[in-house]
Predict the structure of LuxR family transcriptional regulator.
Amino acid sequence: MDLISNLILIDSDSRRRAGISHVLSAGNIHVEPFENVSELAASWPRSGVVLIHDEDGAIEDLIESMARHGDWFPIIAFSESPDAPRIVQAILDGAIDYIAWPISPEELSQNLGKAIIRAESLGNAKLREVMSRARVDRLTRREREVLGGVASGLSNRLIGEKLSISPRTVEIHRANMLNKLGANHTSDAIRIAIEAALVN
């Protein structure tokens, strides 16, 4: 299938990982298997689609790693017999699709193709939202409040009045917030806040 130049498989179970790799390569899909997100981070790929086993915190770890690297790869989660709440949570965390394993090579190929088309049709908006949300999640409650004030166009003095803290304290929180967001300017922070749906 020519839509996928590179499939990044993340699964801590070595037998299942080998089985999936075998199924995919039989369908002419190039697979790069990894045990976990840390192993992937050590040899970061240029592009690809991620097929990740839905274990506790795996998708969040992956998104955090993508935010750090400044790269986005569409994420497809999978697990054995997933229930609806688990699928919903994975989608909320940033997956664009969910696959129940085991699955035939043909079905898997079709699902991957559909997921990639969906990722392209989403454009970068959803992807930027997910990455911005991952950045905003690193902020403390107070830094988030300061970001909200900045995004609403308030001065340090007005933010301080609203939060009952001094303008100098607002300045400190603001500097920490910009640093954690990886924002060079206030305008970058506002863009991240908007993309993370922190402000309308």
